[in-house]
UniProtKB/TrEMBL annotation:
UniProt cross-references to Gene3D superfamilies, sorted A to Z: Isopropylmalate Dehydrogenase
Pfam families for the chain: Iso_dh
Needed cofactors: Mn(2+); Mg(2+)
EC numbers, comma separated: 1.1.1.85
Keywords of this entry: Amino-acid biosynthesis, Branched-chain amino acid biosynthesis, Cytoplasm, Leucine biosynthesis, Magnesium, Manganese, Metal-binding, NAD, Oxidoreductase
Annotated organism of origin: Algoriphagus kandeliae
Compartment list: Cytoplasm
Subunit and interaction comment: Homodimer.
Name of this chain's protein: 3-isopropylmalate dehydrogenase
InterPro entries cross-referenced by the UniProt entry: IsoCit/isopropylmalate_DH_CS, IsoPropMal-DH-like_dom, Isopropylmalate_DH
Organismal lineage: Bacteria, Pseudomonadati, Bacteroidota, Cytophagia, Cytophagales
UniProt entry tagged with the keyword Transcription regulation: no
Gene assigned in the entry: leuB
Amino acid sequence: MEMNIALLPGDGIGPEVIAQAVKVVKAVGQKFGHQITFKEGLVGACAIDATGDPYPDATHEICAASDAVLFGAIGDPKYDNDPKAKVRPEQGLLRMRQKLGLFANVRPTFTFPSLVHKSPLKLERVDGVDFVFFRELTGGVYFGEPRGRNEQGTKAFDTNVYSKEEVVRLARMGFEAAQKRRKLLTCVDKANVMATSRLWRETVQELAAEYPDVKVEYEFVDAVAMRLIQWPKAYDVLITENLFGDILTDEASVISGSMGLMPSASLGSKVKLFEPIHGSYPQAAGKDIANPLATVLSAAMMFEYAFDMKEEAQAISDVVNLSLAEGVVTEDIAEGGKAYKTSEVGDWLAAKILG
Ligand code: IPM
Ligand code: MG
């Protein structure tokens, strides 16, 4: 099959981890006989430096013409420490999500047996955890109008807005995912306080009739924040709005002890985007020490979600598991064993796929 992949390495360690994913994707292409073409674009702080725009039109054109986007990371301390900066790398990310129609962010949490002891939770609570968040990504308070300040600058406001249609399309993805998994869907909202949340709950209740095989639970976001830590194994598929999802998926990412390993996908239209959930880690940039596995696993998600190639995805997961079992890992998880360089891990994974 022919596959056109847009590469957006971004900032910090982004270029290094993307380079390893490319090695792995090329190896998979060679092994399974796919014709893969890569095109690279600028996004984030590096795009601002080069063009003044964190998501230049040229980058959007590359993405829109591709089948899938592999994204590294964005962010630079020079912007984080300047709240008055007019152009910010994050604006590029939000505009990209909106322009590509990526309304669903899929963030799984699962455990790796060799790393589960690194979880901040007790082993028996977390061993075997396997749930996935479907976070709404192009609506809610991130995009709602009006937003801003009053004339004196002494009051600020953001607006949380959802249409029924936005809830329906996200919820359907959650229901369909639950049907393929353990058939449990949790709708996370704040329906005891917020009008938007009541629309979410009412809409999900209506849809539930179409998915009789899926058990639906409704929980308030504050309770979920607590229960994710207490009983993470109680969850299967969770659906939620943009801001709640932003917060809870960061919480979820540390539960398994493998924050550096968690991949994610953003779906919604023809072009799908895949990225590690970690950030740009500027302190490590250029040192060849960053852990590339989350990006490599994001490439595995790409094969599964963008190309419906389960075998290819599995081949990547298998070699990642092998690298963990054999200790071919970067310093963050080497635990006294040999610490491999980012590039060495990528080379090893690619060679194993072909081997
Ligand atoms: C994420 C990030 C972004 C978000 C930031 C960088 C704008 O935290 O992808 O979760 O809030 O969506
Ligand atoms: Mg976030």
